[in-house]
Amino acid sequence: MTESPRISRARQLRLNSTPAENRLWYVLRNRTLGGHKFVRQLSVGPYFADFACRELALVIEVDGGQHADSPSDEVRTAYLNGQGYSVLRFWNNEVLRNSEGVFLAICLVIAGTPPLDARYTAARANLMGRGTRGARAASGARAALLKSSEETPHPALARRPLPDGERSS
What we know:
With 169 residues, this protein is of the alpha+beta class. The protein has 6 helices and 5 strands, in the order H-H-E-E-E-H-E-H-H-E-H. It has a 5-stranded mixed beta sheet with strand order 1-2-3-4-5, sandwiched between helices.
């Protein structure tokens, strides 16, 4: 049985990842960030997301200088937003020179308070609007966040606003 071209392409992208992508993967892998599972080179429509957490509907992109003011990145971000994914972008040199700052920015986005200087685009589609699977992912994300906030002293992970229509108890 042969593998699909999309699987082959994702595998190729993982094998040829940049040093910045490798550094960030070291932080994101093995559920080390609040228990959230991130994957590399997730196929979303015609695109491959560098890193994605399906549970949080979050895509993290690591870009080189060729992406500065790229109109194709705007189209890509708009497509990912339309699929219900928020997109957080970092430059390669940010990941390599300021790993702590990148990690903190990711934590703040997960907590629902993205830093003002981040290249962050929130999803236009509500996570709850992605069907049964999206609703399950949203409830799982809330449960995981509550559990991680009890276990972690990091204040950025301690609170997260509820989606529109949800009430806190």
